[in-house]
From TrEMBL:
Organism encoding this protein: Sphingobacterium corticibacter
Organism lineage: Bacteria, Pseudomonadati, Bacteroidota, Sphingobacteriia, Sphingobacteriales
Protein name, UniProt field: NAD-dependent epimerase
Database matches in Gene3D superfamilies: NAD(P)-binding Rossmann-like Domain
Similarity comment: family membership: Belongs to the NAD(P)-dependent epimerase/dehydratase family.
Any one Gene Ontology molecular-function term assigned to this protein's record: L-threonine 3-dehydrogenase activity
């Protein structure tokens, strides 16, 4: 039997583009997308189901109805929104994951993907060249839930031999779906605002350097990890993955090379600044490079050109 993919949380920034890539790879008939509400628009031949990942019986019903060989769990509450609703963020991020892990073991799902984040690092983690293993003291509920989730993934792999795989995504940047509720979202909105209004006010200070990844690289890296032979994978918590690192100042100057009249300004005292300040600046992804050949293909210059080129034809 061929691969059949179920994506939970498919309407989000990463889910929607992963779904498109998985339809291309496995055929639209073999990819089932799902989320808590209907998508704004459906792709041609898209099979979509409504589901709340906290409704274990409903998730089990989808597993039994579609018999997926791979499940991608992308439903989560991100860092900034999580700080407004910490109990909801913990419930969704943890119990959604536990439901999927338990059902994957019960129903013998071949592979599971679950996204972690560089948010698992905290104020005492090394800021530069942040290694796979180090002190991890996240102080956002999102980061705490992602760190706990990584521990669960490794536990379910070791105890039940579940083939669950994960990536610590940096801030992911894309033009197709505007993200919501993240601390790194400024690096997406800036492009939309640059084209709409020729100006952007950043909620992060100009020197706030963060690890980032272009969506094409995020999707390719995810599929490469999922395709890698299981015996090659030495990390079953979640892999560090790096693309590029930049500051709001860097990205504004890159945009000005293409849109010279673009104006950048900064607000102060935004609560997301404290979250960003607790995160690393640059990530070391040696394990991903060694275990499954990871290598990013976009940098700030090529991403900016691609973002502006694509947004020009959509805005
Ligand atoms: C957030 N985009 O900002 C997410 C991501 C590393 C950041 O996890 O919450």
């Amino acid at each position: 039997m061929g691969e059949r993919i179920l994506i939970l949380g498919a309407n989000g920034q990463i889910g929607s583009e992963l779904a498109a890539a998985l339809r291309l790879k496995f055929g639209a008939d073999n990819v089932i997308t799902s989320d808590i509400r209907e998508p704004r628009e459906r792709a041609e031949q898209e099979i979509f189901e409504l589901v709340n990942v906290l409704d274990k019986e409903r998730v089990k019903h989808l597993f039994e109805q579609y018999q997926p060989t791979q499940v991608y769990l992308l439903a989560a509450m991100l860092s900034a929104t999580g700080e407004q609703y910490p109990q909801k963020a913990w419930d969704l991020n943890m119990n959604g994951l536990l439901n999927v892990l338990d059902l994957a073991v019960e129903l013998d799902i071949k592979k599971v993907f679950w996204p972690s984040s560089i948010a698992v690092f905290g104020p005492h983690s090394p800021k530069v060249d942040t290694p796979q293993y180090c002190v991890m003291d996240p102080n956002s509920i999102y980061g705490i839930s992602k760190l706990a989730g990584e521990r669960l993934c490794e536990y379910y792999h070791k105890k039940y031999n579940l083939d669950v795989r994960s990536i610590r995504y940096p801030g992911v940047i894309s033009w197709k779906t505007e993200p919501g509720g993240g601390t790194t979202d400024y690096a997406v909105h800036i492009y939309f605002e640059a084209l709409r209004n020729g100006a952007y006010t950043s909620f992060l200070s100009e020197q706030t350097e963060l690890p980032m990844l272009y969506m094409q690289d995020a999707v390719r890296g995810t599929l490469e990890l999922m395709d890698a032979p299981a015996e090659k994978l030495s990390i079953r918590s979640s892999y560090n993955l790096a693309g590029m690192s930049f500051t709001p100042k860097d990205i504004s100057e890159e945009i000005q090379k293409i849109l010279p009249s673009f104006e950048m300004s900064y607000t102060e005292n935004d609560p997301r600044q404290a979250i960003a300040d607790s995160w690393p600046k640059r990530i070391n992804d040696d394990y991903a490079r060694k275990d499954w050949g990871w290598k990013p293909s976009f940098d700030l210059e090529t991403m900016t050109k691609d973002m502006i080129e694509n947004l020009k034809s959509t805005i």
